[in-house]
Amino acid sequence: MNFKNSINEYYHYIVYTLLTVTLLYIFLLSSSAKSINFALYTTRNSVYQPSNKFNTKIHGDKLEEALAGASTEDKTVIITIVNKAYVEGDKPMLDIFLDGFWLGEGTEDLIKHLLIVAMDQTSYKRCMFLHLHCYKLETDGVGFIGEKLYMSKDFIKMMWERTRFLGDILKSGYSFVFTDTDVLWLRNPFPRLSHNNSIDLQISTDEFNGNQWSEANLINTGFYMIRSNNRTIALFDKWYTKKDNSTGLKEQDVLQKMIREGEVRNLGLKVRFLDTVYFSGFCQNSKDVRAVVTVHSNCCRRIKSKTADLTVVIHDWKRFMSATENETSWFQWTPHDHCRDSWRH
Predict the structure, then answer these.
(1) Computed over its alpha carbons, how large is the radius of gyration of the chain?
(2) What are the pLDDT digits (tens) for 35-44?
(3) Domain range for residue 80?
(4) Residue 22 falls within a domain, yes or no?
(5) How many CA atoms lie within 13 A of 131 on its CB side?
(6) Rounded-to-integer distance, Cα 195 and Cα 154, Å
(7) pTM value?
(8) 115 contacts 77 by C-beta, under 8 angstroms
(9) What is the CATH number of the domain that holds 92?
(10) Residues in domain Nucleotide-diphospho-sugar transferase (predicted)?
(11) Nearest-10 crossing angle of helices 153-171, 56-70
(12) Closest by alpha carbon to 115, among 87, 85, 81?
């Protein structure tokens, strides 16, 4: 009888212990889930307002994967955007762009941090073939396949689509250097870009007036570095909302107006305007080939003209790199004749 009682007591003890452990596990699991949800909620809301949420419905996880793959340790990415017109032809624009990284000083390793955003399947396939970091941008049925002539209706629409997308990248927590594909990187630009965290935006200029803080500088959105924070996200949100009330203006014109009218300053942004001695273009050539970092085929109307004159720039660069010190003292860029003539047709 005593033996049976011992068995019963042991059985009840086992059941009680298992029940206690189960209830304790359920309690801890519930508390942990609440803590995780709270942590995610407080983290997200401490960085972004609800209106600034990353558009996962459009981009999904693929963009995050592409950004993470190209990112530096401090979540900075180099971004360029292409379509079919930039990857086809005997010597397409994308190939010329990549030549700059190959031939430039200290630029080859930067390709590891370059994300190519393709606006159609042809350019995406080309990017994948080249084994680069690639992302295909879905544009809600809007076609951006062929060349969009400068200041045409489709060109302006494409520039605004670009602005919306880049704003989403800021919301995802990534800072970036945006570069048009018609910008040759002849030297590593990062030593010439300020690493002061108080500067939100560093942007290239068509014409530099000598003062890197002057809001009177004529900007160019073809090359700029921007940090991801609440101020820059607010800038892109406000910038994009002006799209429908800016008929006939490209996004660059609207941002220029926002800068000159003090709207950017009122958002708390600190903007640095880049000197064309270092970040040059066809509008205002750098006079110092020993200092030049990038060359942009701005002030040019057609892709065919851009590729022709950028090819000449590459030849000029090779000539400079192989010249003696005495020969470089009188170096001059070859005139950009194709781009000059592009405005006549």
Answers:
(1) 27
(2) 323 332 233 3
(3) 54-181+211-267
(4) no
(5) 0
(6) 36
(7) 0.81
(8) yes
(9) 3.90.550
(10) 110-310
(11) 70
(12) 81
